[in-house]
Amino acid sequence: MPKKIALGVLCAISLSANNTALEKRVELLEKKLQELQIQNTQAKYQTRSSSFSQNAYLPDIALILNMSSIARNIDNTQYENFAIPGFITTGSAQLPFNKNRGFNLNYAELALHSVVDPYFEAFAMLHIHPDHTAIGEGYVKTTSLPYGLGIKAGKFKSSFGRINAKHQHAWNFDEQPIIYKALFGPGSIGDMGISTQWVAPTDTYVMVGVELLQGSNKRSFGNTQKNNLTVAYLKTSLDITQNLSTLTGISFARGKNLFGGDTDIYNVELTMQQQFNSYSSLTWQSEALYRKRQNIATDAKQAGFYTQLVYKYNKNYATGIRYDGIVKNSVDDLQKYTVMAQYHPFPMSRLRLSYSYDKTKVIDGSRKNIHTVMLTLNIAAGAHGAHDY
Amino acid sequence: MKKLLLLLVTNLALFASMQIDTTYSTLGAIAKKVGGDFVKVTVLGSNKYDPHFIVPKPSLLAKLRRADLLIINGGGLEIGWLPPLLRNAHNPKINEGSLGFLDASQSLELIDKPTTVSRAFGDVHAEGNPHYITDPYTVPIIAEAIASRLAQIDPIHKFAYKQNLQNFKKEWSSFLTQFDAKMAQCSTKEVVQYHELFNYFLKRYNIENIGTIEPLPGIAPSSKHTLELIMLIKQNKVKKILQDVYHERKTAQFIAAKTGAKVVVIPHDLGAVGGKTLEDFYNNIASKICK
Question: Which of A231, B165, B176, B257 is deepest in the core (most CB within 10 A)?
Answer without folding.
Answer: A231
